[in-house]
Amino acid sequence: MKLLLLAVVLLAPSFQLKRDFLTADEADQIRQAQDPNERLKLYLQFARRRLELVNQTLQKPTPGRSALVHDTLEDYERIIDAIDTVIEDALKRQLPVEEGIKAVAEAEKQFIALLEQIQAAEAPDLSRFEFALTQALETTRDSFELAQEDISQRSQQVAERLEQEKKQREALMQPKDLEEKRAAEKKQAEQQQKRKAPTLLRKGETLKKRP
Predict the structure, then answer these.
(1) Which is deepest, 80, 93, 156, 206, by most CB within 10 Å?
(2) What is the domain partition of the chain in residue ranges?
(3) Residues 6+ apart with CB under 8 A from 95
């Protein structure tokens, strides 16, 4: 039933320049999932649903099926891109995301196998969605490869890239603007340090001055 509803949504005429790759309900679920691990699991669920729809649609020839398969594969690929974005954002913010990455690696291994099966089947109308299928497969392979990397090494790579991007932006700034920016960053760091200062005192307690 869910696949049928999804097919109806995807086949509905759209006047947008770029079609939304999630349904309204799926987008709401993503917004409500603030934890990156939960968000990744949702995206995996949506990606699997797209591949199930593709596989089901290809079981029998029907008018317009190649367009549905093409669009569904495009949406699937954008979901995989969103998965990589969630992981990278979590690493930037130093949030725990090991659980989600493990789930991604396990699911994407299955996704690759299914996409390869679809490719090997060589449907009569393959030429009409072959490019979307190839892109979906390559994107999933790249994402799967990233998910298998050592997370500490990947975090370091993200941090190094952010630092490099920061230096490039600063190189384009005027000296006065750069000075103001660094002063603001220093002030913010000092404020964060004050908030994080550890203490064993209870609320309302103060240190007694030594005589």
Answers:
(1) 80
(2) 22-159
(3) 36
Sign of CA dihedral 106, 110, 111, 116: positive
* List of residues 6+ apart from 142 with CB closer than 8 A: none
Range of lowest pLDDT (19-28, 159-168, 186-195): 186-195
Predicted pLDDT at 175? 77
> What's the CA gap between 133 and 72, in Å, rounded?
10
DSSP 3-state percent helix, strand, coil across the chain (nearest 5): 75, 0, 25
Looking from the CA of 189 toward its CB, the CA atoms found within 13 Å total 6
The rounded distance, in Å, linking the Cα atoms of 30 and 160 is 29
Q: What is the pLDDT of residue 174?
A: 74
Alpha-carbon span 177 to 162, nearest angstrom: 20
CB 103 within 8 A of CB 143: no
Across the chain, mean pLDDT equals 85
Sign (positive or negative) of CA dihedral 178, 179, 180, 185: positive
